């Protein structure tokens, strides 16, 4: 699946414009699924500049399908996705990117490609602005030390950093990352999530991340979206709202909810 820029899923709606300039994307009664069959209840949410949203849920619950639907790669079963304007630029990193592993390029070139589109791809020289953006993206993604290394020789976690840098180099308004830290060690994962949170806040991007590390997601994201096919449920809110929701507790237990403190959990307070 291609990285980088994607066309708007639908033309901007008049109602989307009314929500102000911070609004980038809006799901209205959006039902995702395949062959007309819904995976989840309708999703209603707005993604604004400065948002860092983490999407959580069990395997197969529909997280990647929601991303594909936002990008217009998958048709909704019903409902709509709106961009707030034609200029909203989005960038996407899918879960795994096998094709990149075959390319004989250094990480810096791969990141540079994030800025190219159309005939720019054939341009022999990059501009000063391109080079500055590439270096800033490498730095932001913690990929500076691997910039000169051939991409295909990197570890999976290092590759994820390079791909993150590439998506940041696009200078998109809306960045969708499907498990961007899955191959990273715990330290790199926290650093990356912290960087993404800072980028969302300081650069006024919207960052949406799928993550299976619930505690790290809750620590850095300012909103969580929990999706569950069994309940079925779509729950949007802060960590307490989501972690104390019955559908969440049914799947992950009570240990994440502060109103249901762990008893006898190996990481919880010692008994007695
Ligand atoms: N092209 C397709 N056609 C029909 N069903 C599909 C298709 N792609 C995925 N599915 C199914 O849709 C469901 C949701 O898949 P999806 O990849 O969105 O889950 P996910 O939450 O991202 O899972 P994971 O955490 O494992 O990445 C799964 O049951 C999957 O088998």
From TrEMBL:
Q: What keywords are assigned to this protein? A: ATP-binding, Nucleotide-binding, Transport
Occurrences of domain ABC transporter (ranges): 25-254
Record keyword Kinase present: no
Looking at the keywords, is NADP present?
no
Which Gene3D superfamilies does the annotation name? P-loop containing nucleotide triphosphate hydrolases
GO MF annotations for this entry? ATP binding
**Which family is this sequence assigned to?**
Belongs to the ABC transporter superfamily.
Entry-linked PANTHER family: IRON TRANSPORT SYSTEM ATP-BINDING PROTEIN HI_0361-RELATED, METAL TRANSPORT SYSTEM ATP-BINDING PROTEIN TM_0124-RELATED
For this entry, the protein name equals: Metal ABC transporter ATP-binding protein
């Amino acid at each position: 699946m291609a990285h980088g820029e994607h066309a708007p899923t639908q033309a901007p709606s008049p109602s989307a414009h009314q929500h102000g300039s911070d609004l980038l994307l809006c799901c209205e009664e959006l039902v995702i699924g395949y062959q007309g069959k819904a995976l989840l209840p309708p999703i209603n949410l707005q993604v604004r500049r400065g948002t860092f949203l983490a999407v959580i849920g069990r395997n197969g619950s529909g997280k990647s399908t929601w991303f594909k639907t936002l990008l217009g790669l998958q048709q909704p079963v019903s409902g709509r996705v709106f961009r707030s304007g034609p200029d909203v630029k989005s960038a996407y990193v899918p879960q795994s990117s096998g094709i990149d592993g075959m390319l004989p390029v250094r990480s810096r070139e791969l990141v540079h490609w994030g800025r190219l589109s159309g005939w720019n791809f054939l341009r022999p020289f990059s501009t000063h602005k391109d080079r500055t953006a590439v270096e800033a993206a490498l730095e932001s993604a913690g990929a500076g030390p691997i910039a000169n290394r051939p991409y295909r020789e990197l570890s999976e976690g290092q590759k994820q950093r390079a791909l993150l840098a590439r998506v940041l180099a696009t200078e998109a308004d809306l960045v969708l990352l499907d498990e961007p830290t899955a191959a990273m060690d715990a330290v790199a994962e926290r650093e990356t999530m912290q960087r993404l949170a800072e980028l969302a806040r300081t650069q006024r991007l919207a960052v949406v991340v799928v993550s299976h590390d619930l505690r790290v997601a809750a620590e850095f994201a300012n909103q969580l979206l929990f999706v569950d096919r069994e309940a079925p449920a779509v729950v949007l809110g802060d960590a307490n709202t989501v972690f104390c929701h019955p559908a969440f507790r049914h799947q992950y237990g009570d240990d994440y909810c502060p109103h249901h403190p762990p008893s006898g959990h190996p990481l919880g307070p010692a008994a007695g």
